Amino acid sequence: MTSIFLDPLDVLYLRGNKLFADAGAHGEALMPPWPSLAAGAIRSRLMAEGVSLEALADFRLTQFGLARLHDGGVIEHLWPLPADVIVSDEIALGDATYLRPSTTPAGIASSHALPKLPTLQTEKPGKPVGGLWLTGDGIAAWLAGQPLNAKHFVRSGELWQTDPRLGIALDPKTRSAAEGKIYTTETTALKKGIGFIAAYEGSANKLPAESLVRLGGDGRGAVVRSVTSHTTAPDWARIEKEGRFRLMLTTPGLFSGGWRPDGIPAALVAASVSRAETISGWDIVTNKPKPAQRVAPTGSVYWFENLTGNLTTLKALAQNGFPMEDPARHAEGFGKLVIAPWAV
How far is CA 1 from CA 41, 54, 148, 206, 230, in A? Predict the structure, then answer.
């Protein structure tokens, strides 16, 4: 497996699936971006180095996410706040609480499709704080199911800023500004040392160190830096002993059952999943659009009980991600996940 850090040289156009419509339309930046951003950039650069399309048939993105590059080449992974963590103290960020699956009391009915509801149990009500990410220490604490506090969080404003840009459509005949077609779009300006960690398999070729790739819309440049990526393994012994675990998506999940994951040797008892997202894109090989598909968003958390058999299937799932009917989406890095014990 080859691990690299993509270090942007300029603002990035990280567009989602929303098209421009009427005059005055606004295009929002997507953070974190889809893993296909990195898969396309890496494969395009490898082909520019002379690697054939046939040689990239087994290419597979195995990891993608936001990261911080420290002095000495040390990589710190960063995660958007998992869907099972709620922080309501806007100032101190000191009251992080895990959602806990609970059986609904008799007499209370809901449309929830699973046996248990992820409930928030706190001493006082509060409004959830948005725009938080887990630091490397926070990720380790979450994977161990340990309490989280202020030192485990970083605000998105400390990682990047959005930079709105004004655009004017051109008349294809006159090559001048088209009347009434002004639009704005957000660019993402990452802070110094902030970039993307990506890892891939299936290609014997590696990107040249300090080479450039085109990243995101408008082909903005990013420097490729070779790094060693370390990930924290879950407490498999505890998971096997308790027979239950949490599963979190680190990239959007594409499932045949909609928001429900497939092929898990345990019973799904609760889930905290945000509103579905839609992915699409353009296939430059066939020169046609990719089909629009609904996905469960990054950070979605699922709780499982009654683990059957040994851990072989779970470990393979954690290493390879979810299998998909569309091999292209699997190669692009969708459906990656981490597994952890239930929170204490």
Answer: 17, 19, 31, 10, 12
